[in-house]
Design a protein that fits this description.
Layout (H helix, E strand, L loop, with lengths): L5 H9 L3 H18 L13 E4 L9 E5 L16 E4 L6 E4 L3 E2 L9 E2 L2
Parallel strand pairs: 2-4
Antiparallel strand pairs: 1-2, 3-4, 5-6
Bound molecules: zinc ion (ZN).
Length: 114
């Protein structure tokens, strides 16, 4: 347990840009899934999501689930997850820093993000 180092860890995490935060947290959540033996077609996962909302409008919040690229970076990588698309397997909106993402909810690879 690293309880005494939590303030340092928080400080380091808050200094990351969005790309780095996604890379760190998605891999942390994958490790949690492995620890709790969540795998295959049925299970529960921790995911990183970003919501957009307007408290002054009567609209549902818009939620994107942040995924990592499916393949080693294809070239046009951004520091923020500007690319997004719908997962063909589970239907959630996946946002990514590259054009092909792995869905953080169901694990489908190759989600097209534009
Ligand atoms: Zn999915």
């Amino acid at each position: 347990m690293i309880t005494k180092d939590l303030p340092l860890l928080r400080s380091q995490l808050t200094s990351l840009n969005e790309r780095e935060l996604i890379e760190v947290m998605v891999h942390v959540f994958e490790a949690f899934a492995n620890r709790f033996q969540v795998s295959g077609d049925i299970g529960a996962r921790y995911v990183l999501a970003k919501s957009s909302f307007n408290k002054n409008e009567d609209e549902e919040p818009y939620i994107e689930f942040l995924g990592v690229p499916s393949e080693p970076y294809l070239g046009y990588v951004q520091d923020e997850a500007f690319e997004n698309g719908s997962c063909p397997t589970c239907g959630v909106i996946v946002a990514c820093i590259d054009k092909l993402a792995t869905c953080p909810v169901c694990g489908t690879m190759g989600v097209q993000c534009t």
